[in-house]
Amino acid sequence: MTESNPSRRWLILAAVVLVQLCVGGIYAWSAIAKPLADDYGLMEWQTQLIFGINIAVFALTMLFAGPLLDRRGPRLPVIIGGLLFTVGLLLAGFSGGRFLWLLLGYGVVAGAGIGFVYLCPIATAGRWFPKRKGLVTGVAVAGFGGGAVLLSTLVEGLLARGLTPLDIFGWIGPGYGLLILLCALVFRNPPGSKLATSRAELPRVGRDPRFWRFFGAMFAATFAGLLAIGNLKRLGLAGGAPELIAAAAVSALAIGNAAGRIAWGLIADRFGRRLASVLSLILLAASILFLLASAGWGWVFLAAAALTGFNFGAAMVLYATQTQDSYGSENFGRVYAYVSLAYGLSGTTGPFVGGLLYDLSGGYGVAALVAAGVAVAGALFYILMERPVRAFQPRADAGTTPLEVTEP
User: Fold this and answer.
1) Model pLDDT for residues 94-127, shown as the tens digit of each residue
2) Integer Cα distance of 298 and 336 in angstroms
3) Considering only CA atoms, which of 283, 323, 6 is closest in space to residue 137?
4) Nearest CA among 121, 149, 148 for reference residue 137
5) DSSP letter at 163?
6) Measured distance CA(328)–CA(132) in Å, rounded
7) Gap between the Cα atoms of 309 and 256, Å rounded
8) pLDDT value at residue 116
9) Percentage of the chain surpassing pLDDT 90?
10) Which of 148, 71, 68, 72 is nearest to 116 (CA)?
11) How far apart are CA 87 and CA 110, in angstroms?
């Protein structure tokens, strides 16, 4: 692979970012969850379960999308994902506000669409820019984070004009779906790319401590981050933030999330994956506690939201990059699909736990402490797993490259 064909690779990078902007609107859920609950009588745990199921199905679908990406290239899975995403949001739009239909449309079908799409931009960007893998992976996943800025702003504007949450689903589905399908026509692997040809090449990840290191750290980061993201607007309102500040916090977190994905990619390239992984988890815990404490402090709450998003964004670039480092680009789709099951697990637990603890306690203090504790535990787990990783020697027929003793 090479960084030749500069005009084509920059066009592909633009398509990568556009696709991620579309599917990344999932992180704007906090902006639509409250009006959805208010207009249709849903409980807080129900709105957060819809969000959590979307994340879980998104992660599970990557188990099918990853092998398809590795064997057929990025275009086909993006097309499949764009169609599913459109159908899912249309189902949500015609749900009449009924919980089970929202769960099916937004949670299951749209979540499957995101799962088919998500890996393709990350893998494609890394393959076209092999010498800048950390940076372009950050750019690719920054588009996903930035999608929440775009969609939360759009949602607030449309709600102010009198549209219902269901109307918004009905407009976003076809509009975003069409853009995804157009970008899919641009997606391709660079000349000379190696495609996976058989399942025998797939490393035995279940026996590999590197896999469990990435899995555990990703679960901790995404559990903590998704708990905050899924409940952010109501957390601000519960802490005394004005409606305008609480709504703006969703965009502030999304901006920080997008910036953090690029910045943590650069930090990892410059100072190493290990330092970046541990530091990001510790800072995520601190920023969530700061978020809780600053809810009534106006613009300070916006800064805390941006910092939380910034540190959460690290999870979406660091473990993708380390998976490519450890297993090779040709195996990325299949191996990272398994790593991302941690994201699915946290998606079903983090937002739901936050909503449930709010319903039980009437506040987010306990939930924030739980989230921060899980993030710190993730940092400790990543450090403790270092010795098994260094002692591990992959089998010669495992289709993977041994991890260097020096962190990349």
Assistant:
1) 988 889 999 999 999 999 999 898 878 877 877 7
2) 39
3) 323
4) 121
5) -
6) 15
7) 5
8) 92
9) 21
10) 68
11) 7
Looking at the chain, how many residues does it have?
408
Q: What is the pLDDT of residues 224-236, one digit of tens each?
A: 988 887 777 777 7
Determine contact, residues 63/115, Cβ cutoff 8 Å.
no
Cα 342 vs. chain centroid, distance in angstroms?
Answer: 11
| Angle between helix 75-93 and helix 110-128 axes, rounded to 10 deg | 150
Residue 172's contacts (CB-CB under 8 Å, 6 or more residues apart) are 25, 89, 151, 154
Q: Side chain identity at 344, as an amino acid letter?
A: G
**Structure token digits, residue 36:** 């959805």
| 243-271 and 29-40 helices, crossing angle to 10° | 150
Helices marked H in 272-364 — which ranges?
A: 273-293, 299-312, 315-327, 332-339, 341-361
Q: What is the DSSP letter of 206?
A: G
In the chain, where the domains are located: 6-188+208-389
180-184-185-186 Cα dihedral, nearest 10 degrees: 110
Report the C-alpha gap between 93 and 168 in whole angstroms.
7
Cβ-contact 221, 318 below 8 angstroms: no
* Best CATH choice for the domain 6-188+208-389 from the list 1.20.1250.20, 1.10.10.10, 1.20.1270.20, 3.40.50.720: 1.20.1250.20
Alpha carbon distance 391, 158 (integer Å) = 55
Do residues 217 and 276 touch, judged by C-beta distance below 8 A? no
What tokens appear for 230 in the block?
Answer: 């899924």
Using CA atoms, how far apart are residues 63 and 81, in angstroms rounded to an integer?
A: 13
